[in-house]
Amino acid sequence: MVKTVKIADREINYQVINRRVKYPRLEFKTGGLVIILPEAATHDEQLVSKYRSWIANKSDAINSAITSAAKKKLVLHRSSRDFSVMVDRLISEHAKTLHVNPGKTFVRAMRSKWASLSARRNLTLNSHLRQLPSDLVSYVIYHELCHLTERRHNARFWALVERKYPNHDKLETVLLEYWFLIRDNEQKGE
Ligand SMILES: [Zn+2]
After folding, report:
1. pTM of whole model > 0.90?
2. From ligand 1's centre to the CA of 141, what distance in Å?
């Protein structure tokens, strides 16, 4: 079900999905807002009003990333071999720095994120990272490995990230630009 909320001067569409989850979740990654609620729950409007400033900020960030992506042209075309050599190097480097012990690494096309970490400590990387500059790939890997110490995006987590990437906000913005750039290129069949 698609609904619309008006926040300040913006009209933001959002989709409500009921899924077998314990806690409600707000996702923005694919470009639109998705509210995931536990089965039978219907309090999406309460959530929207509770998080209206977060929603407005995310929506602005996405709109400006889409605008910047339109101006960007360059994406890299690394071979999967070069990519896996680079990834292995970055994982061992960051794991050493963070004193963590990740499991296996998988690379596959992912629809809503750059990377994820399973409960078994396995790292999955979005194969689209092959097209990104190495500093961004490095950040994505470092970020995921920090989750081996702290699962949630809380203050403790960001403090750990900041030890190596004090500029993580900027990197997250650029990652979002690449997200839309790659999506646009795919839609154009590049
Ligand atoms: Zn994270």
Report:
1. no
2. 10
